[in-house]
């Protein structure tokens, strides 16, 4: 893995974690029965996973020589 891949993925994880916590804080789950949004830790971890995966899509693949 190159340095660029790591940096972009870490930025995605951070943005996702902030987004996940913001989702918990502003929307959340009133009844407490939602698996992801009932606790801030679950929501933050899920957001960071999704953010890392999403940002990792935008890293260009290295060209392979024939």
From TrEMBL:
It holds the Pfam family DUF6132. It comes from the Bacteria. The chain crosses the membrane at residues 5-24, 44-60. Keywords: Membrane, Transmembrane, Transmembrane helix. This is YtxH domain-containing protein.
């Amino acid at each position: 893995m190159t340095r660029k891949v790591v940096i972009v993925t870490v930025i995605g994880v951070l943005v996702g974690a902030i987004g996940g916590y913001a989702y918990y804080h502003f929307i959340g789950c009133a009844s407490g029965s939602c698996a992801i949004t009932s606790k801030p830790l679950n929501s933050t971890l899920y957001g960071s996973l999704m953010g890392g995966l999403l940002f990792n899509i935008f890293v260009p693949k290295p060209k392979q020589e024939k």
